[in-house]
Amino acid sequence: MKESKQHLQDLWLLGAxxxxxxxxxxxxxxxxxxxxxxxxxxxxxALLTAATVHAATLHRGVGPEPDSLxxxxxxxxxxxxxxxxxxxxxxxxxxxxxxxxxxxxxxxxSEDGRVWTFELHEAARWSDGRPIVAxxxxxxxRRALDPATASxxxxxxxxxxxxxxxxxxxxxxxxxxxxxxxxxxxxIRLERPLPWxxxxxxxxxxxxxxxxxxxxxxxxxxxxxxxxxARLELKPNPHYREADTVALDGVTWHVIEQPDVExxxxxxxxxxxxxxxxxxxxxxxxxxxxxxxxxxxYLGSFFLAFNLxxxxxxxxPELRRALSLAIDRDIxxxxxxxxxxxPAWGLIPPGMPGWPEGREPPLPPGERLAEARRLYREAGxxxxxPLRVELRFNTSLTHRRMAVAIAAMWxxxxxxxxxxxxxxxxxxxxxxxxGRITEVFRGGWIAxxxxxxxxxxxxxxxxxxxxxxxxxxxxxxxxxxxxxERGDERLSTLRxxxxxxxxxxxxxxxxxxxxxxLVDPAVRGFEDNPMDIHLSRWMALP
Length: 542
Fold this sequence. Notes:
four-stranded mixed sheet, alpha+beta, 16 strands
């Protein structure tokens, strides 16, 4: 990034960090910026030529383009949301994110908690009318764990007998602990008892595999058209086992990466539900929309992550700590984001069952900057030799505001020169996975199920989601030990693992998410819940 452009960004953010105004925009927006942004909603409302929403078709924002609609290779939140409309697992969520039967009509668990047996619903059908059989799950799980598939979410199946060995190529796929004793019966054997295993079965990677044929779905809807970069159109699946309970004539998921554009389309009557809201505008949105603005607790964490395989951050925990201490989380959540987010000094979000309510800051506010500067100098950097670093993030107004604010704080407090790298989602995740050019990048995790281990497994040395390339034998040992434990003993071990991760400064926790949506009053069946999962099958329109 050119220095002149960086200077302008710093001036913008420093103004935002130091002032509050009564503007309808985020606190601290300069008048010149506000005057431009004030015409954005009107401009886009006039520009967009799509018809307003139809009464029986639900129009929803999905955020960025889904990275994949293959149940085994999809990993983005946008993809998972669409896949939950198109497919269904053994269990599923109701409108309040509580477990209810899916393809499985009933199930039982052995006394030792290791064997789960499922009886499939006799009415379970693929969208082509063929029965969904137990073998479809067996084939799907084997494909997910086959190293050739390179599934980024396959590690979620590691609790299953031999799953880890299959995933790492140390065992054949037919040794996996899943069998189909009969077409309507599925048996799964676990390495250890898992009370939350039922919630895992709501994740798309566990769904029955439709095979190589396109256009075959197990859920309440089928995909009838996908226009890349624009929308995905869904219609009800006539062969769905509870097709008579689906109230909608269709669902259209709209690809909209910029929250301001999404807001403009909501105001123009072209969306019933937004994926998010623009940062820093909660007060104005409350004033304009009242109860249509839905903000609720959410089991998710947002953080920065370091590539520990490359300089300057390999073997430099004190430098990483300096960068962390120089970031004011309170200013980020109050003035840059402004949507009710909670400042974070840990990975595991508040509300996790059995988990303490957040971590205290490591130092009092008045001591953090002095310690950050000391560590920065000890790492060999100063005004004459400033640290130069790239901060990488995917396209999003929220992410850009966050990145510019952090770059401004680093420069103001330490003298760091930060280049901001904005990438389209698919490019971003490819670079993050390969780790050849990443230095610092935005990270985050949304709970797949309500358990702290779901967050910590990201940093196991052989985990496919370990984009930091953290490789610590003690951390791995703690995670293996927690896998053998239960109850309070297990939670205590997981807390040790989180403490080690934070002590090593692998990530910079920034904030805990809240769910943020605008929901048209005409929509029935949308319920706030801590998983922020809202299946279209539970919704209805007049």
